[in-house]
Structures are given as C-alpha cells and as structure tokens.
C-alpha cells in the first residue's frame, strides 16, 4: 500500500478520492507538477515547486501550504514508500463547489508512483498538428486535445504549431539543432519545462521562433521532458531530420543531463533503465 | 439524501467519489450534458441525450449504456429525489488510468440538483475577450479559461471572439437581433446549444458570422442557455445595445420558450421563480 498526502493527512493512495463536485471533475480546473525521485533523492525539486506555485497563482488557487512544508511532506512520502525510481506528482484542484463554477477551497494532494523505464528508441517519428494549448504557460490539468489525438495517433507524438510556428508537444518540449550547431527551442506559447531549462543551460541554447522551415533545415531535433529526459527525433511529418539517425549533440546533451542528475542523486538514472 | 447513479448502481450522491487516477482529475478529460426537470418532467431530454452521445463519440468515450436505459435511469432518479425544479447532469469521464494518459474504462454518473431561480436582470452587461475554446462543438468538462476569467470579472459574463468574430460565452450562446428584426447567432466554433436550437426554430433565425461591427449595429442582443433560457443583454464593452433596455423580440422569445416548456411539463417554469 503506497502512501499519499491529501489536505494535511497521510492516507493510503488507494483511498484518495474526490467527491464529484470537485472542479477538476466538473470543469477541468486544476494544476499539477511532476518530478523524479532517483535513489530516493528528488531531482530539480526547487524548480518544480517554483513552477507549481506559479501555475497555482495563475489560476488563483491557494495550496494552503508553504514550499518548505511541501518539501518535508515529499521527504516523508519518499521515506514511507521507499521506491527506488519514482515520480512525485503534486495536484491542486479547484475543490468542491456547490454551484459547480466557483472556487471555495482547493483540494491539494501529493502522490508517488513507480516510474516506468523510458522507452528505448532509435528516434521518435512525430507529426505536426495545428493547435494552441489554452494558457500554455500554466501546467494545468487540461489535455483535452492531446488525449483526443492520442487514440488516433500512428506516430510517436504530435507536435503542435500555429500557422507553421512550432510550440511544443502535449507533454514535452521541442528542440532543434541548427546547421550552425545552435540549440534552439520555441520561445512563445510553451510551458517552461524544467528539463527544457536544464538543456538550455547545458547547451547555451536559445529561445526563439521555430518554424516548419527551420525544421527542414535543422541538423538534429529532440524532445525533452522529466520522464523522457533528452530523446532524439528522426522524422517530422515527411521530413527526415539530418541523416535520419539520432544526432550527436542530442546524445551528448542527454549524457550531460544524466551526469547532472548523478551529481544530485548520487546515482545515474540510467542504471535503472 | 439525494440519490445519484454511478456505473450501474444507485447510490447516495454524497458518496459519489472518483479515485484521483480518473482522467478527469488527471487530464481534464470528460464530457457532460445538463437539462432541466420541471414539474418532474425532463425538458428537451432527447436533444440533450443526442448531444451527449455526440460529445462522447468525439472523445472516443463509451458510456456503456444505451439512450433508452439512460432515460429510465433519469426517470428513476426523478421519482426517488422528487425535486420540483431541478437539473439533471450526465457526466462521462476518461475513467481510471494507471498510466495517467490512456483511456481504459470510462466512469459514467448521473446527478440531480435543485435549481436556483435564474437571476432577475434588467439586462446583462458583458465584455468581449479574445479566446477560442478547445473543441468547442464538444460539451467537454474543460472550462479552464472561463473559470480563470470568472474571478477577475466585473461584468455579468465574458463573450469570446477571435479577430472580432464572435463565438459564444463560456457556458451560453450569443444572439443578436438585426435592424431588420432578423435573429442571428454565430455559426462556427460554438457548442450547438439546445436552447439555441429551440430559439432558432421559434424565431426562424439564422446561423452566420457575427462580428463586433454587427453588434454595434444590432437592435437587440441576448444570451441563451438551459438555466438562463433567454435573457437580454444591454451592454457589450462600451457599446449600448438598442436603447439600453431589454429588447421586445428578446422578451417575446423568452415567453414563447416558456410556453413550449409549459406544453411539455404541464407547468410554466416561471411559476417556480
């Protein structure tokens, strides 16, 4: 039985239920964040908590607990559950609402889950799709279009764009490596990913507009997320990226990210894969 | 204690909870519909059920029950709960998902709630806001932007547009009456409201593009929804509609809609207000 945290108490995760008057169920209203735990050490937790509080503020939701208190709850969960490689998810919903449209008191819960190994891949093949996520800078629970597309998807993932301007994947960030070996990720209409931030730091990369034409001229492309870390993309629609194999800079950035996590967690996350 | 229906059983509504692994809570993934019960008679239930099944199909969610079965459940709820004026809400969520992104088996529940009287109004004052709902033709649970705006709203409601082309309110439909006494509602990027449909029938109205300029030239404007029925709008941003008082055709259409409901339910819904 795994333990979870819910509104001030530690409870069995299997009993963690919300009454259907909660605004997440009524109106899809809530925010979350998610980070990895490697060797029982939370990875980039501060960055994730900062983003969580920014998301909550954007939706005017008050978690009712301070950042330091959340950290101590997370550490207690890690100790109680003792999973070697896991993900911690914080969720803050609109809470129970008699009228179904007004926030009264949010519900806040934290769960911990064993993580699946990231998929082995010779490179993702993705397709583009014209769509703009609502409030993309907020890590909200709204994945309506992402899940609708998921079932029909023959590709590994779907890359959102608007009028040919690339934004992001439903759950991950997009990068290209230009002919000049510059690492570039879209600047606007995207969630500020934590892995995105680390990769920008590691690569001295740039945030700017990325178009479908930029993809056509790119040497490499890759996707980043907390669970995927850095994974190569070899095809986008009918465009083969580079020579159709995972790129060299992509591989290097993934290795550098693993090293960074090793420094934090005392173990390389790849040893679990 | 009110009774609700949940996945094949009648239970006390206060016990109707979903485990947090449900995709409504994880990913805002679900659809619903809502209709009124007047004098213990469901109003326009067939139209609402047809739309409910269309919404479910768009999200590839299977309620696991036929339309006729839902009708008999609704009648049993009405009998058990015996509320004079109420709303029935059908909700179909993505269901429990171990991975948090894949639909396995949807959750389906039906709840009944006493209805509040619709607000007395001398005419709504609303503001416009540039936004397009995701999958607007689907009655999904996603109201992220609507609820975000709600808290900051000094007006009665917010009217969505894109590049000056009006679509709808977060939870209601928009109509104008032109200088030629034509009743017009936006054709594209809107939910096909049931009250919208009835009002189009009653008024021999038209569905076409409505711009902010059309509003400037309109003689009347009004909003329709299942709970609001037909309510006048007297101001949109800084534009006063007509002479700033509820319009004549608006009032007539509201009266005709009440008559229609009286024929169905054997009582005028207004007697409850």
Rg of chain A is 19 Å
Structural class of chain A: alpha+beta
Oligomer: homodimer
Portion in beta strands of chain A: 25-35%
**What's the SSE pattern of chain A?**
EEEHEEHHEEEHEEEEHEHEEEH
* Biggest sheet architecture of chain A: 9 strands, mixed
Q: Estimate percent helicity of chain A.
A: 25-40%
Q: Average pLDDT across residues of chain A?
A: 95
Query: What distance lies between the first and last C-alpha atoms of chain A, to the nearest angstrom?
Result: 24 Å
Largest interchain contact: A-B, 43 and 43 residues
Tally of separate helices of chain A: 7
* Shape by Cα distribution of chain A: globular
Number of strands of chain A: 16
Low-confidence stretches of chain A: none
Written account of the structure:
- The structure is a homodimer of 273-residue chains.
- Chain A is an alpha+beta fold and 273 residues long.
- Helix content of chain A is 27%, strand content 31%.
- Chain A has helices at 23-27, 45-58, 67-81, 144-150, 194-203, 212-216, 248-265, and strands at residues 3-6, 9-12, 17-19, 30-38, 41-42, 85-96, 105-114, 124-130, 157-162, 165-166, 173-177, 183-185, 206-207, 220-225, 229-236, 239-240.
- In chain A, the strands form two sheets. In chain A, strands 8, 9, 10, 11, 12, 13, 14, 15 and 16 form a nine-stranded mixed beta sheet that branches.
- In chain A, strand 8 (124-130), helix 4 and strand 9 (157-162) form a beta-alpha-beta unit.
- The radius of gyration of chain A is 19 Å and the shape is globular.
